[in-house]
């Protein structure tokens, strides 16, 4: 899937280009859109580990995003903790809840897991509305402090943007390392055939729970950053629509493809912004985009490229037939 | 008091049931879920509303209009989102139906605007009083019509050749195909039935609450999906039972615990049932083959 050297080079170029944007442009609106794209990229990459690599069809990712956001907001507002500690603690709290949810959730297969996690997402959103002494209820939590890291205050759009880039970069590298390692291959084996994987000595429960824990940890971090970026959160930010949007991002980029998740998140965050002038037609175009891309490129935008290369190779070299056919299998 | 709550529960249950059996029909055959069912419901509701307010048709004609329009939208959804993906990929149909639900909401929003529309006229049935329990005219229609449609659906599934084809395809898709069942037609049939019922439900729910708005299908379809899953999402009668259970749980929660937590309790029950019996109360337990 990765013809790795070229991909790395392209990524490096894109990374440098993104990092130099602040030198060229100083537009708060552009920074805002790109920062939001960064947050969604982390969410998409982390959900991709569950859906794309482990084959766990979870539709409740926004719930974990929300748990992280509320945890971090409350830790700083009521616990007076500094940002960095609250940031990591909210990740840990979310991961613990993710692990607890994972244990029963793993009894569920396919659509039942999807429905169960959707139910969980609704429960979290409704709890955020109803536990109003803690969460501020439907009105949300205002006045969350802006981040301060080792005495450096982050308050300008440009600074948030740089933080987002570093956050995305670290997340991306970690997930690429995970998926290239033995546990990553174990997850792929589980996705392909659970029984065969078990026969090979792979402990299904351990790997699946670990995938949940890692994935929700990063969703929690993204939530924390979101809370301290907007300084205001409300239950509406973490509904099922958000979960669906994250799912759409990884599907547009290519299931199981982490580079694709970046592309998908960038596209789905920027498309509605660039067609802002169409106002009332935005939602319509957004919906049509999702339908058309899934129909035209079922492998996703980035997933499509390696498949194309493989086809060409296939014509040249028939021996590749057995090894390439099952690469881009959809979960 | 208790009697009144049971009536409320039955009404809620009826509203969920008409949507939930649709999920069960579709999921029973395709083993996939549609996320556009709430919007098929909403489009039907608005079609019925338009028929009654613009063309002044009677209630029966309004219901039939709602069912027809929903049926067409449902069949289109099946064509776009499910027909191209018979290989069992879960994600593509899920995403396309999410896309379609966004599109349908956007279209209706552009057409009628975001504000809530009331039902144009009073349905001329007087309310009943049994002891201290009051049943209004619209409540009788909701429960009555649901009952009629459910019985008709059960008769269709169990007494006709088409129903036999539905059951066979639900049991084994490829097997039914090999036995000469045109499975594409059967899938379309399931979608048609599910969508028509959703359309009727849309008009009923809109008239009952006196509120038609583009997002009216979002929450209720999620609850209906929960109800269907509760009963075992591949079983039509399971979906009916699940809906009644969910309706009763909700009305009891509102009456004796707290109105804010009705949905929390509903989804918590769903998750607990799933954890204890992963295929729902009446669902078939699919054995894993090596």
Radius of gyration of chain A: 20 Å
The N- to C-terminal Cα distance of chain B equals: 54 Å
Low-confidence stretches of chain A: 318-331
Largest interface: A-B, 43 and 44 residues
Number of domains of chain A: 1
Whole-number total of structural domains of chain B: 1
Beta strand count of chain A: 2
Taken in chain order, the helices and strands of chain B follow as HHHHEEHHHHHHH
Summed up:
The complex is a heterodimer of chains A (331) and B (290). Chain A has helices at residues 4-24, 28-53, 61-77, 83-105, 110-130, 132-135, 157-180, 182-192, 194-199, 204-230, 240-253, 258-274, 282-296, 301-316, 321-324; strands at residues 148-149, 152-153.
What does this structure look like?
The complex is a heterodimer of chains A (331) and B (290). Chain A has a two-stranded antiparallel ribbon. Chain A starts with a helix and ends in a 7-residue tail after the last helix. Chain A is mostly helical and 331 residues long. In chain A, helix 1 packs antiparallel against helix 7 (157-180) and helix 11 crosses helix 12 (258-274). Chain A has helices spanning 4-24, 28-53, 61-77, 83-105, 110-130, 132-135, 157-180, 182-192, 194-199, 204-230, 240-253, 258-274, 282-296, 301-316, 321-324, and strands spanning 148-149, 152-153. Chain A has 15 helices and 2 strands. By secondary structure, chain B is mainly α. Chain B is built from 11 helices and 2 strands. Chain B has helices spanning 2-30, 37-54, 59-82, 91-112, 137-159, 161-171, 173-178, 183-209, 216-231, 236-256, 262-276, and strands at 128-130, 133-135. In chain B, strands 1-2 form a two-stranded antiparallel ribbon. In chain B, a hairpin with a 2-residue loop joins strand 1 (128-130) and strand 2 (133-135). In chain B, 53% of the residues are buried. The A-B interface holds A 51, 57, 104, 107-112, 114-116, 118-120, 122-123, 126-127, 129-130, 195, 240, 244, 247-248, 251, 255, 280-281, 283-284, 286-291, 294-295, 298, 330-331 and B 27, 31-33, 35, 80, 84, 89-92, 94-96, 98-103, 105-107, 109-110, 222, 225-226, 229, 233, 260-261, 263-264, 267-268, 270-271, 274-275, 278-279, 288, 290.
């Amino acid at each position: 899937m990765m013809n790795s050297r070229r991909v790395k080079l392209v990524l490096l170029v894109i990374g440098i280009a993104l990092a130099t944007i602040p030198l060229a442009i100083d537009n708060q609106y552009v920074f805002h859109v790109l920062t939001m794209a960064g947050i969604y990229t982390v969410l998409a990459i982390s959900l991709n580990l569950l859906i794309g690599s482990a084959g766990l069809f979870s539709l409740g990712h926004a719930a974990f995003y929300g748990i992280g956001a509320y945890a971090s907001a409350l830790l700083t507002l009521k616990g007076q903790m500094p940002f960095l500690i609250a940031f990591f603690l909210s990740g840990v709290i979310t991961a613990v809840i993710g692990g607890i949810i994972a244990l029963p959730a793993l009894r569920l297969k396919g659509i039942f897991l999807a429905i169960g996690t959707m139910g969980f997402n609704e429960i979290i959103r409704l709890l955020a509305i109803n536990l109003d002494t803690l969460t501020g209820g439907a009105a949300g939590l205002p006045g969350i402090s802006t981040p301060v890291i080792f005495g450096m205050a982050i308050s300008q759009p440009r600074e948030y943007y740089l933080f987002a880039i570093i956050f995305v970069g670290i997340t991306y590298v970690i997930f690429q390392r995970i998926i290239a390692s033995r546990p990553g291959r174990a997850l792929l084996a589980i996705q392909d055939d659970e029984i065969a994987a078990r026969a090979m000595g792979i402990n299904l429960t351990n790997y699946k729970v670990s995938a949940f824990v890692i994935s929700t940890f990063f969703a929690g971090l993204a939530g924390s950053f979101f809370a301290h970026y907007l300084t205001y959160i409300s239950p509406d930010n973490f509904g099922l629509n958000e979960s669906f949007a994250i799912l759409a991002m990884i599907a547009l980029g290519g299931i199981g493809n982490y580079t694709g998740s970046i592309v998908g998140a960038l596209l789905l965050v920027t498309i509605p912004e660039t067609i802002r002038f169409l106002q009332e037609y935005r939602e319509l175009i957004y919906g049509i985009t999702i339908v058309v891309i899934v129909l035209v490129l079922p492998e996703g935008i980035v997933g499509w490229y390696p498949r194309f290369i493989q086809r060409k190779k296939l014509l040249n070299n028939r021996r590749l037939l057995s090894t390439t056919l099952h690469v881009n299998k959809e979960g | 008091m208790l009697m009144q709550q049971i009536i409320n529960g039955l009404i809620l249950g009826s509203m969920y049931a008409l949507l939930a059996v649709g999920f069960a029909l579709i999921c029973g055959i395709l083993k996939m879920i549609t996320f556009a069912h709430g919007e098929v419901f909403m489009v039907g509701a608005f079609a019925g509303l338009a028929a009654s307010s613009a063309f002044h048709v009677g209630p029966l004609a309004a219901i039939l209009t709602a069912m027809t329009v929903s049926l067409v939208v449902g069949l289109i959804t099946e064509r776009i989102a499910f027909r191209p993906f018979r290989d069992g990929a879960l994600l593509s149909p899920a995403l396309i139906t999410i896309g379609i639900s966004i599109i349908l909401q956007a279209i209706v929003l552009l057409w009628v605007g975001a504000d809530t529309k009331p039902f144009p006229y009073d349905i001329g049935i007087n309310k009943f009083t049994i002891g201290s329990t009051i049943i209004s005219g619209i409540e009788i229609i909701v429960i009555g019509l649901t009952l009629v449609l459910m019985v008709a659906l059960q008769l269709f599934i169990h007494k006709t050749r088409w129903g036999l084809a539905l059951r066979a395809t639900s049991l084994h898709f490829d097997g039914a195909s090999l036995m000469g069942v045109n499975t594409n037609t059967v899938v379309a049939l399931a979608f048609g039935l599910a969508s028509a019922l959703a359309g009727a439900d849309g008009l009923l729910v809109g008239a009952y609450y006196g509120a038609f708005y583009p997002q009216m299908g979002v929450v209720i379809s999620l609850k209906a999906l929960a109800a269907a899953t509760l009963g075992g999402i591949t079983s039509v009668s399971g979906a009916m039972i699940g809906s009644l259970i969910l309706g009763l749980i909700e009305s009891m929660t509102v009456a004796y615990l707290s109105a804010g937590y009705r949905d929390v309790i509903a989804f918590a029950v769903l998750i607990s049932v799933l954890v204890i019996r992963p295929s729902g109360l009446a669902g078939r337990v699919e054995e894993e083959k090596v």
